[in-house]
Design goal:
Blueprint lengths: L2 H11 L4 E3 L4 E3 L15 E7 L4 E4 L2
Antiparallel strand pairs: 1-2, 1-3, 3-4
Length: 59
């Protein structure tokens, strides 16, 4: 099992839809698609409608 698979499993088991930071967002199906240099700033988040489509963030 890879670290990405472990992280995806943990996020799903805890009800999260993906990760987000000030730099980017990613869903559980496309985890850590950005540069890994941003990974330390990522937080678990939920898909929310904001009037401009869905994004990942705090509820």
């Amino acid at each position: 099992m890879t670290v990405r698979q472990i992280l995806k499993k943990w996020l799903e088991e805890n009800g999260y839809d993906g990760l987000y930071s000030d730099e980017c967002t990613c869903t559980n199906d496309d985890l850590i698609s950005c540069e890994l240099s941003f990974f330390d700033d990522c937080k678990p988040g939920y898909k929310i409608a904001d009037g401009h489509g869905l994004h990942i963030g705090d509820l």
